[in-house]
Amino acid sequence: MNRIAAFEKVSFEQFEKDWMKNFPETENVRKIYDSIKLPERATTGSAGYDFYAPAEITVEKGKSTLIPSGIRSRIEDGWVLCIFPRSGLGFKHRMQLDNTVGIIDADYYNSSNEGHIMVKLSCDAHDDGHCVTVNGGEGFAQGIFMPFGITTDDSADGIRDGGFGSTTKR
Q1: Quick check: 73 and 104 in contact, CB under 8 A?
Q2: pTM of the predicted protein model
Q3: Amino acid 158: pLDDT
Q4: I need a labelling partner for 75 at 20 to 30 A (CA). Which of 40, 48, 66, 125 fits?
């Protein structure tokens, strides 16, 4: 196996800013931050690293919830981290990422938001009134590192600063 990345927590200040933007009613953000678990694989044969909910998260049918994970990843050049929903949540509750697959590029680590990985989940269940609750510390997404190539005539020289859509803002 190639060892090409490492997970870290973002700073408390970055996490607090992003968490309160999405969950303003939270009383003790420090407690949530201190309980964040770094992603890990469950077995030696697992490709995916489980991302754990920082706190209890509920997603109602037909709605989306943006989850600040508290995590960033230092990734070697030539690799990308792809984020997917946990298989069980997708199968049982039709939970999905709003952007279908999250792409975390190696240069995202140095962004002004510290490369904070955010996951926006929605619930597309068929049952009326359906909602899904993921408890703090439970897996809600998985990340898989994949190698990638570039074209022979590639001349990209831009510098990233941000997440969603930042590489097309020129």
Answers
A1: yes
A2: 0.89
A3: 85
A4: 66
